[in-house]
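Database export, one record per block. Field names are fixed; values are copied verbatim from the stored entry.
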Amino acid sequence: MKILIVDDSRAMRAIVRRHVSEAGFTDAEINEAENGEEALDFVRANSPDIVLSDWNMPVMTGIELLEALRGEGNMVPLGFVTSESSDDFKERAFDAGAAFMITKPFTADDFTRCLAQYV
């Protein structure tokens, strides 16, 4: 399984990576991107199995990434790992085609629950 973690914070990418591993995905190939633009280029070139993206990032936000992917017809599952938890954000995410939302603070169990269906 190839997983792409997208977050402008290096520390948060490390935390997400650790939780993914703790969730049992120790054999996953995990790659990282600092923003949506980097992630879009990576997805186009490498076809990951799933994208875990923050919402708020410079250059290109997570929702802009999702909209760009869907606009290109790319249906890679993209889940948000974010502090945004309002109903408006959730509605916008799912309307745009998000696979799931994991809100901070999160646990390894959250990743197990959300990622298990993509194994």
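Remark 1: The chain has a mean pLDDT of 95.
Remark 2: Strands lie at 2-6, 29-33, 50-53, 78-82, 100-103.
End of record.
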